[in-house]
């Protein structure tokens, strides 16, 4: 993942550095909205799939505390 971010920075860094702060902010805002929308769609699809599954909870717990 780190390599992907470095590649993205190398690809988009120079053109973004030439933009005015307001332009960069507008682009960042649009990217954030698009990313939030796509993630929400992905989560919704995952939940719908889980609801259709015959067994198991819709989302598994990330952490199971040890028995004490």
Describe the structure.
The structure is a single chain. The protein is mainly α and 68 residues long. Helices cover 71% and strands 0% of the residues. It has two helices and no strands. The protein starts with a helix and ends in a 16-residue tail after the last helix.
Descriptive terms for the model:
2 helices, mainly alpha, 71% helix, 0% strand, elongated, 68 residues
Helix-strand pattern: HH
Calculate the mean pLDDT score and round it: 82
Number of continuous helical runs: 2
Morphology call: elongated
Work out the number of β strands.
0
> Biggest sheet: strands, sense, closure?
none
Short description:
By secondary structure, this protein is mainly alpha-helical.
Lay out the secondary structure.
Blueprint: H1 2-17, H2 21-52
